[in-house]
Write a structure and sequence with these properties.
The chain has about 160 residues and is mainly β. The chain has one domain: Jelly Rolls (Sandwich). It contains one helix and eleven strands, in the order αβββββββββββ. The strands form two sheets. Strands 2, 4, 5, 8, 9 and 11 form a six-stranded antiparallel beta sheet that branches. A five-stranded mixed beta sheet has the order 1-3-10-6-7. Strand 6 (about 90-95) and strand 7 form a beta hairpin. The longest helix has 9 residues, at about 5-10. The N and C termini lie far apart (about 30 Å). About 35% of the residues are buried.
Length: about 160
Amino acid sequence: MRNLWALGLIAAAGCMSTETVGDDDSSDPNACSEELMLDGTSGSQPTAIGPVELGNTNICMRLDASHNLVRGHFMASTDVETGTTSSFTSTMTEIDGTMIATGWDVTFGQTSPQSRATLEWDLPSGDVRDVVLHIKARAGAKATTIRLALFEPFE
């Protein structure tokens, strides 16, 4: 993955890029629109990407739970929006395309429901994994902020 370590150092220093990511014109379904590193011991404060206009995007990540005591809990979500269905779907794969996890919609409120796309997955303690988060708009392009976190679940 191009410059993953350099981007990880920038992300760790708190200087995340928030440039627009969109449809990837590459024929590679796992080509990265963004690359970053998340450390499972840096706390549960999420890293935000955006707001960005999305059709289909891939975020390549190095998830590092090498110093976590129990496990690294990964969480990704989009903005909350009105309705019972989010405008986005999400999946996570290994770099080779092997499916790891599928996201779902979280909906809350009965009289005025609101939803967001969410994906969560646990990385074993001591593990470092390179993955791709795929986020896709259900219809056309739509703006959202993507929030990503990897943390010790019992911190």
